[in-house]
Task: inverse folding
């Protein structure tokens, strides 16, 4: 299973990952963000694709599921009733509603839409100019 890893020492807070996300999804809002921590350092925040995802456990309609093959937490907007339980349950505060269409949840899908088999790296990984964002295999 692959997960996004952040090297905060390399991040310069350029927001390239945020822009890459918007471009990749052809949307007006990103599924990630960069915040400034208490030490005045840029801190990118991405979906952790949790092993035990609270967003999946609290979703009453099955719109959030854990893919057993990839390990990714997937969102099906057709099943979503916009109750926002997933947003409230996320311990990292990464999930949010779409700024324009508040019925949709902004959820990282690891850019699996970029290739038929989902083998391309997420756009944020590909476009990070500092190499602060990488994709790593985890057990």
Result:
């Amino acid at each position: 299973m692959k997960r996004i890893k952040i090297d905060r020492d390399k991040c310069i807070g350029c927001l390239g990952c945020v822009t890459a996300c918007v471009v990749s999804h052809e949307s007006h809002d990103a599924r990630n963000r960069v915040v400034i921590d208490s030490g005045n350092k840029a801190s990118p925040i991405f979906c952790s694709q949790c092993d035990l995802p609270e967003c999946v456990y609290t979703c009453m309609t099955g719109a959030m599921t854990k893919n057993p093959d990839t390990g990714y937490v997937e969102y099906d907007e057709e099943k979503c009733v916009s109750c926002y339980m997933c947003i409230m349950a996320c311990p990292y505060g990464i999930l949010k509603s779409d700024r324009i269409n508040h019925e949709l949840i902004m959820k990282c899908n690891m850019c699996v839409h970029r290739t038929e088999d989902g083998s391309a790296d997420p756009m944020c990984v590909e476009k990070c100019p500092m190499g602060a964002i990488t994709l790593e295999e985890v057990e």
